[in-house]
Write a structure and sequence with these properties.
With 316 residues, this protein is α/β, with parallel strands linked by helices. It folds into 2 domains: 5-209 and 304-314, Spore Coat Polysaccharide Biosynthesis Protein SpsA, Chain A; 231-302. The protein is built from 10 helices and 8 strands. Strand 2 (40-46), helix 2 and strand 3 (67-72) form a beta-alpha-beta unit. The radius of gyration is 25 Å and the shape is elongated. The model has no long low-confidence stretch (mean pLDDT 86). The chain crosses the membrane at residues 235-257, 269-294.
Length: 316
């Protein structure tokens, strides 16, 4: 019998967190999902961990046949890790969460209940983001949230929370997407009809440190901006038109000034430089953006696989 519920967790160097995660998760599963008519499975992706994570996961899978471990041959990133698990998931309801216990497994039943009510995508909305998430971690998330809200047109509070539940249809649709740079929460929303959020608790990272630095976040932001909208390119054109218009008016003004004050000389070299630097700067931003799109097109046409599965471990 195919599982009814699939729990998906991406894991990258989480050896300190795995024991507590497994203990809490298996308790939730036995307490809340004991109905034999609704079997569950847990799919753990090892995203190329360099510590003992993989060995620990395999041990868990040996003892519990409902656990499957997808082993990647190297590190491909959180979203690819989730995709790798999506490809294995058989459940009608699919829940994702982080391994670091920032997303309490105890919240899973709440999300599952919402999908059972008929929602396609249920996002967790983190209450009281923890202080140990540094300014450099929360500030970019705020920007990501704001931009995502604008570019995808779906008004959720929290796109960054990976404690989320999806219906089978939405996951199937996501699996059809071939693009490599995909931000799962936004992608899911583009295939969902009914979307909702439920408040979930948010704990401090139990151990280890965040795998996201500022650079990964900037990359994620570009992913979002370029894969879900053409907004930056359109903004470029608008900006170009406005600048040209402004330049033309300035030209008319200068001509008029010349006629009105034939004796006046403008001491404009520095002003000119200021203006020049400004526009040169703008041009480079524009080039950068264009380059970003072209680079992404290049990556897509090479059509490399998003990840490589080395082995799937499961006790029979
Ligand atoms: N993760 C992953 N591959 C990566 C980076 C992270 O599978 O390259 C996993 C990580 O093990 C964790 C989840 O993704 O389960 C979220 O990572 P993290 O806690 O570092 O992100 P943050 O909470 O800071 O957003
Ligand atoms: Mg975390």
């Amino acid at each position: 019998m195919d599982p009814y519920l699939s729990i998906i967790i991406p894991i990258y160097n989480e050896e300190e967190n795995i024991p507590a995660l497994w203990e809490r998760l298996s308790r939730v599963m036995t307490e809340h999902f004991a109905d034999p008519a609704k079997p569950w499975e847990i799919i753990l992706t090892d995203d190329g961990s360099r510590d003992r994570s993989l060995a620990m996961l395999i041990d868990i899978a040996k003892a519990e046949p409902r656990v499957k471990v997808v082993e990647f041959n190297r590190n491909y990133g959180q979203h690819s890790a989730i995709f790798g698990a999506f490809a294995e998931a058989k459940g009608q309801i699919i829940v994702t969460l982080d391994a670091d216990l920032q997303n309490p497994p105890e919240e899973i039943p709440k999300l599952v209940a919402k999908v059972e009510e008929g929602f396609d995508v249920v996002g967790g909305w983190r209450q009281g983001r923890q202080a140990n998430d540094s300014f450099f971690r929360t500030m970019p998330s705020k920007i990501v949230n704001a931009v995502t809200r604008r570019t995808t047109g779906v008004k959720l509070h929290d796109y960054g929370c990976m404690l989320r539940a999806y219906s089978r249809d939405v996951v199937d649709a996501m699996l059809l997407c071939k693009e490599r740079s995909s931000f799962i929460p936004a992608l899911a929303n583009s295939f969902a009809k009914r979307i909702t959020e439920v408040p979930v608790a948010h704990a401090e990272r139990a151990a280890g440190e965040s795998k996201y630095g500022l650079w990964k976040l900037i990359n994620l932001q570009f992913d979002l901006l370029t894969s879900f909208s053409l907004l930056p390119l359109q903004a470029l054109s608008v900006f170009g038109v406005l600048t040209a218009g402004f330049g033309f008016l300035l030209f008319l003004g200068l001509v008029a000034y010349r006629f009105l004050h034939p004796e006046g000389t403008a001491q404009g070299v520095f002003t000119l430089f200021a203006i020049l630097f400004f526009f040169v700067g703008c041009q480079f931003v524009a080039f950068g953006l264009l380059g970003e799109y072209i680079g992404r097109i290049y990556q897509e046409v090479r059509d490399r696989p998003r990840y490589m599965v080395k082995k799937v471990h499961q006790a029979k």
